[in-house]
Design goal:
The complex is a heterodimer of chains A (529) and B (402). Chain A has 529 residues and is an alpha/beta fold. Chain A has 21 helices and 20 strands. Helices cover 38% and strands 20% of the residues of chain A. In chain A, strand 8 and strand 9 form a beta hairpin. In chain B, the strands form 5 sheets. In chain B, strands 3, 5, 6, 7, 8, 19 and 20 form a 7-stranded mixed β-sheet that branches. In chain B, strands 11-10-9-14-15-16 form a 6-stranded parallel β-sheet, sandwiched between helices. The termini of chain B are close together. The chains are: A alpha/beta (529), B alpha/beta (402).
Chain lengths: 529, 402
């Protein structure tokens, strides 16, 4: 039995608490008597024999689905779709779960005499995966067998010849997905469900879709009506994807869903980063941390980024389930919650968080200011069930250097979004109305998305929409230690220290405001009653 | 009288160049510029008179001279020692402001007593005068660079009647001192040949850039105007004067790409655009600005150099391959408007200064004795929240002496 997540009330004896701060860290003392810290659970025990568990899941599906071997036959078209580079975070040590599963699916397909097999990285409007990223995800054996023949590809949401319009939901949402997948006799979708948002019908209806389809749920209205998008049953994002899933199913698109969950083992139990995994430090841990911090502070920024992005997490699989999409996803969500949910009583006036160096959209890249907003107000803020841990009108204080820096190859349209759109307005509704289509249909962005490694032109809009629920909920957002110019461009207030930020927050929530600190990562989800 | 005089002192000029590279405007401290008590200039001939400057602006070309950055191209067409200052509003008669004039500083054939005038002067295109080193005056392309005329940075200067434009009683001195630079901007936009709806990029949003934006809006049918402005005050004024899109210097290529919907060369970063703006008006004049202009102008588009350039090293392959036109625009004279009428640029400038309230660009002003401070402020005007720095001569004691 591993230790579950818990809430620590801060008193005078509570030592300074760790805040992630991009590729650095800060130790901050929270005010005693009115602060609490939500700590994540320890990593769940992993499955001891993942290969066997996978084989068992494939042969013993859940829901209304035959076992995978029974779905495979000679002459059929089989497409294996898999989650892209945005999952898991940080990238996991080899062998990647996707590799383990895909190898077994291919073995079964070969045994059944299936020879028309293609693999597709289901990246929607994300950037294409590089060869090394694909090799990491599917393994060298699979890559070498398929990629040279054009049978292992990145999904291209802008290839008009390779998209299929499937139909429209009862709400008028258009469903258009990858043609090869749509016209296959079977899609096997391989997920890594790092948070409860992942998986279900979102895998196929989003991961293999085009802008024409995605715009129906990746928009401000959907995001502000998702409370939160991490809670499937209260998420309009998911409701829309589920409606699209019905259209896919009714049109005869067959999906054999494989979902996996991983534990919270982000930093491991050995080496200097392991102190980041612990909630209570020994004297030795403290010394290790201080040495780590000093070393990082002395490193040039570029090297520091390189060091962090080369980190491969020792995540281990905690569950695998396969079969019919919805039945699979229900089980998956239970497993995700088992690792992430932490019971929390009531809301506070202020929510603090330290943002780490990575989010789903800057793997091997730069966490630009828009991604800082998305990670804080999109992902971390929405990691709740019930109610947000901060009250309506409260203040969010997040810590991140927020440099005015972008990866031009990965995020070209982000630069324009930052220079043009945010210079005019930070209102998600106005942004959506005035600018979205201009970016979505921009020929240059389209070219870079298709031929280089660029996120789609519209992607920064989605990042902004991801935070729209938080923007509407919060009275103020303060960034500690960020580039003031970049922070102001985001519409937030810059502060040099946490103490300054708390002082600034008092203008909004008063002097004796209560504080919740979200000690994430490792990931946790506040179950607020 | 008191005057800021620029002498031919090569060693000091070298020192100014070194100092100016370290800190813009520092050439005023160590260079050939000195505040001196000198005699008023003798009147060079008939039609000349003494006038008493009230306000005299500090222009980019003045700063370039003071900081030792000016091209040696000018050596044969200036004469030392000269008193700087060619943006001038002055009292023609008396000192009380009841008879004010703006000086049109180009020293063309008429001022030089040359008859018949050269073809350019005969056509009213004074800026193209072919005799600026000849005739009754020492060489000098303008008042403020000629040893015979004095200049606006003094309490008394000489001016030819043909150079003087009466200032309406309703116009402030601050507005009037903007007429000369405004005429430069008007000439620049009218010679560029801007067609209906053309996209125009204005590089630089100092005095000249802002006036160019105002001129584009009043005298051309330009479509989208993209202003490249570094400082907040420049951005504010650029928008107020009619710029549609504002961009910082390192954002210009992306801004132009967004406006024109063109593709770009470069993997996410932009090396250059494949299409681009119809026109770029360079009000900066540096090597970087010219390179930037070449990167964002469309094939067969036009770059107009309005800011004073010097020696620059620029790759012109793109100019050749994309058939780009590169042209200069210097001072003013007579303009041909869209309806075919010919009007003096200064007349148009008076109208624009009033209509766009361009006097608001002036300030702070300095007395002559604080010239080092004034020059330093002018050299970093944008960063310090100002646009046009000027010398205020109205309270100089020597001014009232005859």
């Amino acid at each position: 039995m591993t230790r579950p997540g818990f809430v620590l009330e801060v008193d005078r004896s509570t030592p300074p608490v760790l805040f992630h701060h991009g590729e650095q860290f800060r130790l901050e003392r929270l005010p005693a008597g009115r602060s609490r810290i939500i700590y994540p659970a320890e990593p769940l025990e992993p499955i001891r024999h993942p290969e066997a568990a996978i084989r068992h899941a494939l042969c013993n599906p859940v829901g209304d689905s035959p076992p995978l071997p029974a779905l495979l036959r000679p002459g059929m078209r089989l497409t294996i779709a898999f989650d892209d580079v945005s999952l898991p975070l940080p990238p996991m040590r080899r062998p990647d779960i996707r590799q383990r599963i895909i190898e077994q699916v291919l073995d079964l397909a070969a045994a059944a005499g299936v020879d028309d097999v293609e693999l597709i990285a289901a990246l929607a409007l994300h950037r294409r995966m590089t060869e090394s990223e694909l090799r990491h995800a599917v393994g060298d054996r699979v890559y070498d067998a398929f990629a040279p023949h054009g049978l292992l590809r990145n999904h291209d949401a802008e290839d008009p010849d390779n998209l299929a319009f499937i139909g429209t939901t009862d709400r008028g949402e258009e469903v258009e997905i990858n043609k090869r997948a749509a016209e296959s006799d079977l899609i096997v979708y391989v997920n890594i469900n790092i948070v409860s948002m992942d998986g279900g019908w979102k895998s196929t209806a989003t991961g293999l879709a085009s802008y024409r389809s995605l715009r129906h749920h990746h928009n401000v209205r959907t995001m502000t009506h998702s409370r939160s998008f991490m809670d499937r049953h209260r998420s309009e994002l998911h409701s829309s994807n589920w409606r699209m899933g019905k259209v896919l199913r009714d049109a005869g698109v067959k999906v054999f869903q494989i979902e996996t969950t991983i534990n919270n083992d982000v930093f491991g139990t050995e080496g200097p980063l392991s102190v980041l995994q612990k909630w209570e430090w020994t004297a030795r841990d403290r010394a290790t941390f201080l040495a780590l911090q000093k070393g990082l502070d002395r490193m040039p920024a570029r090297l520091r980024r390189q060091v962090f992005h080369s980190w491969r997490a020792p995540h281990a699989m905690t569950s695998v389930q396969a079969g019919e999409v919805e039945a699979v996803h229900e089980l998956t969500t239970e497993h995700v919650y088992r690792q992430h949910l932490v019971p929390v009583e009531g809301q506070t006036d202020i929510l603090t968080m330290g943002l780490p160096y990575i989010c789903p959209y800057n793997v091997n890249s730069i966490m630009n200011p828009i991604l800082v907003m998305c990670l804080g107000l999109g992902y971390f803020f929405n990691l709740y069930r019930g109610r947000p841990p901060v009250r309506e009108g409260g203040v969010l204080i997040m810590s991140h250097p927020t440099p005015w820096a972008f990866h031009p190859v990965h995020h070209p349209s982000y630069i324009d979004f930052f220079e043009q759109v945010l210079a005019e307005t930070t209102d998600p509704v106005e942004i959506e109305q005035r600018y979205e289509e201009q970016y979505a249909y921009d020929e240059w962005y389209r070219h870079l998305y298709r031929t280089s490694y660029a996120y789609h032109g519209v992607h920064p809009f989605y990042m902004w929409y991801w935070g729209s629920h938080a923007l509407a909920h919060l009275g103020q957002v303060i960034v500690v230690g960020g580039d003031p110019r970049a922070v102001r461009r985001l519409g937030f207030r810059p502060a040099s220290t946490l103490a300054d930020a708390l002082e600034m927050a008092s203008d909004v929530v008063g002097r004796d405001a209560t504080i919740t600190h979200l000690h994430n990562p490792p990931i946790l989800m506040a179950d607020v009653t | 009288m008191k005057a800021l005089q620029f002498e031919q002192r090569p060693l000091r000029y070298v020192a100014a160049a070194a100092a100016g590279r370290l800190r813009p405007g520092a050439g005023a401290t160590v260079g050939p510029l000195r505040l001196r008590s000198i005699d008023p200039p003798e009147l060079p001939g008939p039609g000349w008179r003494h006038i008493r400057p009230r306000l005299a602006g500090i222009c980019g070309s003045d700063l370039s001279t003071i900081d030792g950055h000016s091209s040696r191209y000018f050596e044969p067409i200036v004469s030392f020692p000269f008193v700087l200052g060619h943006e001038v509003v002055a009292d023609r008669d008396g000192v009380d402001g009841s008879d004010r004039v703006v000086v049109e500083p180009v020293l063309g054939c008429v001022t030089r007593g040359i008859h018949p005038p050269c073809d350019a002067c005969a056509a009213g295109d004074l800026g193209n005068c072919e005799r600026i080193a000849f005739g009754a005056l020492a060489p000098g392309l303008q008042t403020g660079f000629c040893c015979d005329t004095g200049g606006g940075w003094s309490t008394i200067m000489a001016a030819h009647d043909s150079q003087l434009h009466p200032v309406p009683a309703t116009m402030t001195d601050e507005a009037a001192v903007m007429v000369e630079p405004t005429a430069c901007a008007i000439h620049g936009v009218l010679t560029a040949g801007i067609d209906d709806g053309d996209t125009v990029v204005v590089l630089g949003a100092g005095t000249l850039g802002l006036l160019t934006i105002a001129a584009l809006r009043r005298y051309t049918p330009a479509g989208v105007v993209v202003a490249v402005a570094k400082h907040p005050v420049q951005r504010e004024l650029a928008a107020a004067l009619g710029a549609d899109v504002l961009a910082e210097p390192d954002e210009v290529a992306r801004a132009v790409r967004r406006v024109t919907g063109t593709l770009a060369i470069g993997d996410g970063s932009i090396t250059r655009l494949t299409g681009g703006a119809d026109h770029v008006i360079d009000c900066v004049g540096t090597e970087d600005a010219l390179a930037q202009a070449l990167a964002v102008v469309r094939p067969r588009g036009r770059i107009t150099l309005l800011g004073m350039p010097g020696r620059v090293q620029v790759d012109l392959t793109g100019l050749w391959q994309r058939e780009i036109q590169l042209a200069g625009a210097y001072t003013y004279g007579t303009e041909t408007l869209a309806d075919g009428t010919r009007r003096r640029t200064f007349d148009l400038a008076f109208e624009l200064v009033e209509a766009a309230d361009l006097g608001r660009l002036v300030g702070p002003t300095y007395p002559l004795r604080r010239y080092e401070e004034a020059i330093a402020h002018a050299a970093e005007a944008g960063r310090r929240g100002a646009i046009k720095i000027a010398f205020d001569l109205r309270h100089e004691k020597e001014r009232a002496r005859r």
